[in-house]
Write a structure and sequence with these properties.
Elements: H1 14-17, H2 40-53, H3 59-67, H4 69-76, H5 84-100, H6 108-122, H7 124-133
């Protein structure tokens, strides 16, 4: 792969910033996917690529997460009883994001954490139903 062939969404990554623009070609252990996510297979490829490069999660990845969080949680999370409280909080933050349309998404975590207890208390039963359905 050549330096100039690295997609824009990886330009702020540690890997990219440490490359020499005039240096030799280099190999990475997989193909870099397109900047679009339509399904879990593509999400997994982007996730692996971003982690390999040491990049921040891109907006298109965050948007896929917001619209498909249940599917992603089933794929990546351990639903043991010890993790129930964490999932209640995660679902509450996700609902807050969707309800208030908190975009740009870089601000939603701070907002959700600041207000999570209020929203968890208001709709606790909704979260319990969501957890049972997962």
């Amino acid at each position: 792969m050549k330096y100039k062939d690295i997609p824009y969404f990886l330009h702020n990554s540690e890997f990219y910033l440490n490359l020499d623009p005039l240096g030799e070609d280099f190999d990475i252990p997989f193909d870099i996917p397109e900047e679009i996510i339509n399904n879990m297979k593509e999400f997994n490829k982007i996730y692996r690529t971003i982690n390999f490069f040491g990049a921040k999660y891109s907006d298109f990845m965050k948007n896929y997460w917001l619209n498909n969080s249940s599917e992603i949680m089933k794929e990546y999370f351990d639903f043991t009883p010890e993790n129930q409280e964490m999932f209640k909080q995660l679902i509450s933050v996700n609902k807050i994001i969707k309800f208030y349309h908190l975009i740009p998404s870089d601000n939603y975590i701070q907002y959700g954490l600041k207000n999570k207890n209020e929203y968890i208390a208001k709709i606790q039963t909704v979260y319990q139903k969501n957890l049972k359905n997962i």
